[in-house]
Every structure is written in structure tokens, then in C-alpha cells.
């Protein structure tokens, strides 16, 4: 199938932006700030250095737990799994829980017992679950990440980088259940034997101390030091900040987020696209409008807007019936030749097929004319 490609230079349609000075070096072993939509790095310091990441590990554990079916199905925790050192959501032998409850116990109370209980429930053993964690890390192309425990307790082969943890958080926040839970400062949960209601408080102080914070996870071990993954939204821009081995992480995150937000503003890349339509053969309509299937807002700095280009790849035509929301191509946006964002293009409406009698007359000649601007002969 041949492809129809169109290229457009960015024009004044993008919003005006302001720039501040780049953030200074911070007191952390590794640090990064990325823009969540594109994954673009706005600030980096040893962001690809392999380091212990403590309980920020539970971002992966909770994400996998919340992807399971039967999130609200009750079960009894494995008694061996919950016998673990460190932070806890207070599970005891015989407690009745759900995977959703355990995910909240991980993301708010940083429960090692919750992480291990979820791992055994999902995969049958902690080792089998760790294998799934590493498989997902490979799928997400977290090239400098290795998991050894579901909880984040230290291990020789348990490490990540500030960059990889930011990309992991970016993926996890796309799960609505994950985003909802990690953004809660307090939650009422029901568990126990029999279950009863109790409060859990989130360890992430930024949820109260930094305006716009939406998550995600704290961590600490003696080896890793203080670790923090945070995400915040402001004026249509979502940023993810990670520090590993940072003794003053709350203040550092506030400073890095403030500096990064000041550098960029949201720009709607969809405004760079012309009106797109796909020819339709054998339908009650000759064409159907095509639109980006997802939000096309990204964060850009001053002077970048005129350097963005959009390339559209569309199927040459579609045969009716056509479903609304059917993917028929993609748009790729680049900045200075580097990919910034790639989005599927989908049909806005559905197109019903013509009656058979009408298809026999004029179908191919009409399609030929729409594609090549002349009658078939």
C-alpha cells in the first residue's frame, strides 16, 4: 500500500513561550525532569546512571497489579508474603484484601507487605512476579533497569536510573486507576479479618505542599538514600521529576519543577495539521474527516515553535463501511529532526456502505476521480 505524505512547517499557530535560566546542579546522585506527553527531557543530571531506587519500585508493582482483572475480588493474603521488613500497610495473617486495596497500600503507605502480597496473588511467587516486572521494563525500553524485589528492598541486581523511573511513571500515569490512587493524600480502605474501614495517608508531602502535584511515589533505604518520583500539572503542561539519592528531595523537586515550568508552555501540535479527509469508496459519503486520536499538546520553549514539523501518513482510501474512530494513519511531529510526538490518526465519523445496486454504477470511476482528479477511461 502506497502512502500519502504531507509535511508542514510550524507557524505562528503555536502559543508564545517564555524561557528562564536552566536549573542548576542539585544535591542528588541522579535527577531528571521530563515532559509527560512527549517524554522529552527538560533537565538532567546523571539521569542515566544506574542507582538503587528503593520503594519507587512500587510504581511498577502497583501498575502491574492495577492491570489485572478482578481488581475488587476479595482474597486472603499469603501469610509468608506479608512477613517482610520495612514500611507496611499493617497486613496480618488471615486479612482479606483486594488488588485495588493492595495497590493503594503500596502507593500511599509504601507497604512492602502489600507489594509482596500482590506479587504472590498475581504470579504465584515473588520470583515469578519479578520476572514479569523485568519483562514489562523491557517492553517499556527501560534499558538501565533491573528488578529483584517487588517492594524495592535493596538487591545486587535491583537498580534503575532517574530517566528510566521517569519513563516508568509516565507509563503508569496513563492507567486511570493508578493516577487516581497515587494522587490521593488520604484514602479510606477496607481490609482485615473481617474487613473494616481504616485510613491510609500518602507519604508524598508534595501532594499538599506543591500546587498541582498529582503523584507519584516516595522511597528510602540506607543504601539508596531518599528517592522521589513526583508529577505536577500547570497550565496544560504535565511534568515528571525524579531524584535518586537526594537528602533534600521535597525542596529540590519544588525548585526543579518551578524552573522547568518556567521554561515551557503548552502548544497544541494538532494546530499544525491541515484539515484531513480520507476518500471513501462505496459509501454514502465520498470522504470522511480524519483527526488525531489523542491529545496533541506538548511543552515547548521560546523559539522552538517555528522549528517543529509535522509529517502525516494516511491510507490512500477506505472502503465502506467505515467505523468512527478507525485508525487510518499517523502524524509524526519532529523538532530539529528529532521525534517529539507520534499520534494515530482516526476517522471522526462512520460511513455506511451504499446499497449494492448503487455500488455497481460509478464506484470505481468515482474513486478514481477522487484519487487522481479525473474520470476513469
UniProtKB/TrEMBL annotation:
One of its GO terms (molecular function) is serine-type D-Ala-D-Ala carboxypeptidase activity. Pathway: Cell wall biogenesis; peptidoglycan biosynthesis. InterPro entries: Beta-lactam/transpept-like, Peniciliin-bd_prot_C_sf, Peptidase_S11, Peptidase_S11_C, Peptidase_S11_C_sf, Peptidase_S11_N. It catalyses: Preferential cleavage: (Ac)2-L-Lys-D-Ala-|-D-Ala. Also transpeptidation of peptidyl-alanyl moieties that are N-acyl substituents of D-alanine. Keywords: Carboxypeptidase, Cell shape, Cell wall biogenesis/degradation, Hydrolase, Peptidoglycan synthesis, Protease, Signal. It is an enzyme of class 3 (hydrolase). It holds the Pfam family PBP5_C. Residues 1-25 form the signal peptide. Substrate binds at residue 217. Its EC number is 3.4.16.4. One of its GO terms (biological process) is peptidoglycan biosynthetic process. Residues 21-246 form the Peptidase S11 D-alanyl-D-alanine carboxypeptidase A N-terminal domain. Removes C-terminal D-alanyl residues from sugar-peptide cell wall precursors. Belongs to the peptidase S11 family. This is serine-type D-Ala-D-Ala carboxypeptidase. It comes from Ligaoa zhengdingensis. The lineage of its organism: Bacteria, Bacillati, Bacillota, Clostridia, Eubacteriales.
Amino acid at each position: 500500500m502506497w502512502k500519502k505524505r504531507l509535511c508542514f512547517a510550524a507557524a505562528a499557530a503555536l502559543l508564545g513561550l517564555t524561557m528562564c535560566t536552566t536549573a542548576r546542579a542539585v544535591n542528588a546522585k541522579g535527577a531528571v525532569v521530563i515532559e509527560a506527553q512527549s517524554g522529552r527531557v527538560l533537565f538532567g543530571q546523571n539521569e542515566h546512571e544506574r542507582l538503587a531506587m528503593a520503594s519507587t519500585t512500587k510504581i511498577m508493582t502497583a501498575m502491574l497489579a492495577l492491570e489485572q482483572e478482578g481488581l475488587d475480588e476479595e482474597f486472603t493474603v499469603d501469610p509468608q508474603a506479608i512477613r517482610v521488613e520495612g514500611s507496611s500497610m499493617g497486613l496480618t495473617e488471615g486479612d482479606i484484601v483486594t488488588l485495588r486495596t493492595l495497590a493503594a497500600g503500596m502507593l500511599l503507605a509504601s507497604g512492602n507487605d502489600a507489594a509482596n502480597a500482590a506479587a504472590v496473588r498475581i504470579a504465584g511467587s515473588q520470583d515469578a512476579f519479578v520476572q514479569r516486572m523485568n519483562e514489562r521494563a523491557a517492553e517499556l525500553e527501560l534499558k538501565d533497569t533491573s528488578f529483584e524485589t517487588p517492594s524495592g528492598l535493596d538487591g545486587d541486581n535491583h537498580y534503575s536510573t532517574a530517566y528510566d523511573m521517569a519513563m516508568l511513571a509516565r507509563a503508569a500515569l496513563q492507567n486511570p486507576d493508578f493516577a487516581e490512587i497515587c494522587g490521593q493524600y488520604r484514602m479510606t480502605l477496607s481490609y482485615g479479618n473481617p474487613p473494616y474501614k481504616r485510613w491510609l495517608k500518602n507519604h508524598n508531602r508534595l501532594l499538599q505542599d506543591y500546587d498541582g502535584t498529582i503523584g507519584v511515589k516516595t522511597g528510602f533505604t540506607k543504601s539508596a538514600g531518599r528517592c522521589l518520583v513526583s508529577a505536577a500539572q500547570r497550565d496544560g503542561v504535565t511534568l515528571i521529576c525524579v531524584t535518586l539519592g537526594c537528602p533534600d528531595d521535597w525542596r529540590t523537586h519544588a525548585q526543579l519543577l518551578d524552573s522547568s515550568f518556567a521554561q515551557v508552555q503548552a502548544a497544541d501540535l494538532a494546530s499544525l495539521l491541515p484539515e484531513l479527509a480520507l476518500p471513501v469508496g462505496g459509501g454514502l459519503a465520498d470522504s470522511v474527516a480524519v483527526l488525531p486520536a489523542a491529545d496533541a499538546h506538548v511543552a515547548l520553549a521560546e523559539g522552538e515553535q517555528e522549528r517543529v514539523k509535522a509529517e502525516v501518513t494516511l491510507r490512500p482510501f477506505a472502503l465502506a463501511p467505515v467505523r468512527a474512530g478507525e485508525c487510518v494513519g499517523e502524524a509524526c511531529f519532529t523538532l530539529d529532526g528529532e521525534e517529539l510526538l507520534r499520534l494515530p490518526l482516526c476517522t471522526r465519523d462512520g460511513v455506511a456502505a451504499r446499497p449494492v445496486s448503487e455500488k455497481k454504477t460509478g464506484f470505481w470511476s468515482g474513486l478514481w476521480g477522487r484519487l487522481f482528479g479525473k474520470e476513469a477511461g
